[in-house]
Design goal:
heterodimer, A: alpha/beta, Rossmann fold, B: alpha+beta, MutS, DNA mismatch repair protein, domain I, Dna Ligase, domain 1, 4 domains, 6-stranded antiparallel beta barrel, 19 strands, extended
Chain lengths: 247, 520
């Protein structure tokens, strides 16, 4: 009886690049995006990262469904996805789950990760519920890596507590570039994204924008916000439990 | 044999209501283009003067305290279907005769009941016991039996050796199952009885040539009527058995059902799980034999004290997987109170759809591949409820909150016109637009500073207005229009806000501002 290596292991074989950039093929299976609840930057960045990862994995025309799970607090604070505003290649294949509690949302996320017919799973959970503990996030990570379905969890108005997500982003909206035709109009979606924990990449800050469906760097990162050793060595929250105990 | 349930709808209503309700004059009504019209009345209503076909207003003029109850034609038809199946106790097959009749083929079956008269007596007793008014008649052809049951007097048995024309000559032409306009035409021609139609020349049997000519004239009068219900001569030939009359029999289609009677009453959950797993395996075999998959499954648990607990699951796609069914039921059995024990467990698939047999997955690593989409959605909807798992679909509307509907995820998406691509819509819509306080607005009406959720924001960029007029075909005339703006504040947050109404549009006071959507 042979056992197939899990997709996570197959895909993450190429050597990781030290600095993250859009369009990398080796993307982790479980990411978290922390964002304020009164803007859609978290969901926007999660969607952009998801589409970036799906495009980079090079599967061409993808007809699989996308599961979008929200708990009740997230719906109340940030609203539901709007069909006309979704990227056109996702709009017709979105399945929405409105969970009443964070426990139900976690159950839906895990069931979605176990499903082979899903392209990716996006979750939105507000605050720091007790159910979303380190154990729960570890469960999600292992399930995602076992079944090879990518997961982005958007944490609205949440403090970055312990989690086993392989990449953790802090996102907020940034002033957009002037529109091409109307300089007074809001331009393409732009975010200020800070990668504060990742296994394969060094932490850093980026200004990302959604350029007609492709994730791009809005501007080159300036040297002031580039990571330095002091920043790296800081035993911040969200690292391992041991680091917190020693600190 | 033809059975006429003369008062089926009233009888059904009476069985569902109380005797004192029946003593009041009551009419069953149906909404028509000209107002409510009476379809049937009870005995008290008939005595008060209400007749079927009257407008309710006319009947109320005769009897002011007439009670009106909505009629239920679909329920009547369903009851008639069940009665048709039940009536197969008297003959090998039966057919519906909508709206209120049954036809049963009792050829060669009457001796089992001790003769034809005893058979009719048995039918009358059976229907009386169920408090249904019924008239039954036996004849060699379906048409003759129908005529006798509806319009016959006295003996309702027409033996094969009898001459149907002689015995049925007195019946009105309505006994031929004709449409109303044909009856009107026949009345204008002066033909009122079956005998007159058969011997239309009035010359009797001696003048065959004249009779044939008169019949030919009648045939030419109805030459372009091919449906039997519109052609009296065709109906007459069917009644006399000269042309065949095919009938569509009713065939019972039992739902797949499996059950287990238990020697010892169950009181523990793990044993119940075992029984449910066994039943699921049995059900899968039963479904496989029919080439079907279950869409809805009902589990009934009989307790020792006579209580019946039911649990029902619905599946997103037809399924025939025992493990999947067992797992879905396991979540619904948590709140079962076994009491003194459960002595019988029954599983029935009340809704099933064709599902072809397919090759079992021979790959040993099948479990690593994860679940199918339908199974995933079933698990989600069983735990979270069927309305929690949905798919957004476009709807024909310009109002943003109405332009999007939610439907079950695996249902077919209805076709829709493509949206206009030059509008940029927000990524997320709030369930309910939240009011914002505009603190300062530019002269052209664009807000410069506003407060939302307790925070004051400076608008740096704005685009608009995009005017969306109210849908006058759906809403009241006092609904105000909306002017939508896309704005970006100093921190880069992008919102979709709108002003409801204009100053001086005569539909309210100062227009209010709302925030409806969040851009990515």
């Amino acid at each position: 009886m042979f056992s197939k290596p899990s997709p996570a292991r197959v895909l993450s074989r190429p050597l990781p690049e030290p600095r993250w950039r859009p369009g990398l093929t080796a993307q982790p299976f479980h990411s978290e995006v922390f964002a304020p609840a009164n803007e859609a930057s978290g969901a926007g960045l999660a969607l952009a990262l998801a589409r970036d990862a799906l495009a980079a994995s090079g599967e061409g025309e993808d007809a699989r469904q996308v599961l979008w799970v929200q708990d009740r607090a997230a719906i109340r604070k940030g609203g539901r996805p709007c069909l006309a505003g979704l990227p056109p290649d996702l709009a017709h294949r979105l399945i929405h789950v409105a969970a009443a509690t964070p426990e139900d949302a976690l159950f839906a996320l895990e069931e979605g990760l176990k499903c082979r017919d899903l392209a990716c799973v996006i979750g939105e959970i507000a605050g720091n519920p007790r159910a979303l503990s380190f154990t729960a996030s570890r469960r999600l990570s292992l399930t995602a890596e076992k079944h090879g379905v990518r997961l982005w969890v958007v944490r609205l108005d949440a403090a970055p507590d312990l989690s086993s997500a392989r990449m953790r982003w802090q996102a907020r909206a940034a002033p957009s570039a002037p529109g091409r035709w109307d300089a007074a109009a809001p331009g393409p979606a732009t975010w200020h994204a800070e990668l504060f924990r990742a296994r394969a990449h060094a932490p850093g800050q980026w200004s990302l924008s959604d350029d007609a469906g492709t994730l791009r760097l809005a501007s080159e990162p300036d040297l002031d916000t580039a990571p330095d050793l002091v920043h790296l060595a800081r035993p911040t929250v969200g690292r391992s439990l041991a680091a917190r105990v020693h600190a | 044999m033809s059975i006429w349930l003369a008062r089926l709808s009233v009888d059904r209503w009476r069985r569902a209501s109380t005797p004192e309700a029946d003593s009041a004059p009551t009419a069953l009504i149906l909404e028509t283009a000209h107002g409510p019209r009476i379809t049937a009345t009870n005995a008290a209503g008939l005595a008060a003067g209400a007749r079927a076909g009257m407008l309710l207003a006319d009947a109320r003029a005769l009897c002011p305290d007439l009670v009106a109850i909505p009629a239920d034609p679909a329920g009547d038809l369903a009851a008639l279907e069940k009665l048709a199946l039940w009536a197969q106790r008297w003959g090998p097959w039966s057919a519906l005769d909508p709206p209120d009749g049954l036809l049963v083929d009792v050829t060669g079956a009457a001796h089992l009941f001790g003769g034809e008269a005893r058979l009719l007596k048995d039918v009358a007793a059976a229907f009386t016991q169920r408090s249904l008014t019924a008239r039954a008649a036996l004849a060699p052809t379906a048409g003759a039996a129908w005529a006798l049951s509806h319009y016959g007097r006295g003996a309702a048995i027409l033996a094969p050796e009898d001459d149907p024309l002689r015995l049925l000559a007195d019946l009105p032409v309505a006994a031929l199952r004709l449409d109303d306009d044909v009856l009107t035409a026949l009345r204008r021609l002066g033909i009122k009885r079956l005998g007159e139609l058969a011997g239309v020349s009035g010359a009797g049997e001696d003048d065959i040539a004249r009779e044939a000519a008169a019949r030919d004239a009648l045939r030419r009068r109805f030459r372009n009527r091919h449906s039997p219900a519109a052609n009296p001569l065709l109906r007459l030939d069917q009644l006399l058995g000269r042309v065949p009359e095919p009938l569509l029999p009713v065939i019972a289609r039992p739902v797949p059902l499996v059950q287990r009677r238990l020697m010892e009453p169950l009181r523990h959950r793990d044993l119940l799980d075992r029984v449910v797993a066994d039943l699921a395996a049995d059900m899968v075999r039963a479904l496989e034999a029919r080439g079907e998959g279950a869409r809805r499954l009902e589990l009934a648990l009989w307790r020792v004290d006579g209580e019946v607990l039911t649990r029902r699951i619905e599946l997103a796609a037809a399924s025939r997987e025992a493990a999947h069914i067992t797992r879905l039921f396991a979540q619904r059995l948590d709140d079962v109170d076994a009491g003194f024990g459960i002595e019988m467990v029954q599983l029935r698939a009340s809704w099933s759809e064709p599902l072809h047999l397919d090759q079992a997955d021979l790959d040993a690593a099948a479990e690593d591949h994860g679940t199918a989409l339908a199974a995933c959605i079933d698990r989600l909807s069983v735990r979270l409820g069927p309305r929690a798992v949905t798919r957004p679909v476009p709807r024909a509307s310009h109002i943003p909150e109405r332009a999007q509907g939610w439907q079950p995820p695996l249902a077919a998406v209805p076709p829709a016109q493509a949206a206009l691509a030059f509008h940029t819509r927000p990524l997320k819509l709030l369930d309910r637009p939240e009011p914002i306080a505009v603190l300062h607005a530019a002269p052209d009406g664009v807000p410069q500073r506003f407060r939302w959720r307790g925070e004051v924001r400076e608008v740096t960029r704005a685009q608009g207005p995009e005017r969306i007029a109210p849908e006058w075909w759906r809403e009241r005339s006092s609904t105000r229009l909306r002017d939508y703006y896309r704005i970006e504040d100093a921190a880069g947050r992008r919102y979709w806000i709108y002003r409801q109404g204009l100053i001086g549009d005569g539909r309210g006071g100062v227009p209010e501002w709302f925030l409806q959507g969040l851009y990515a």
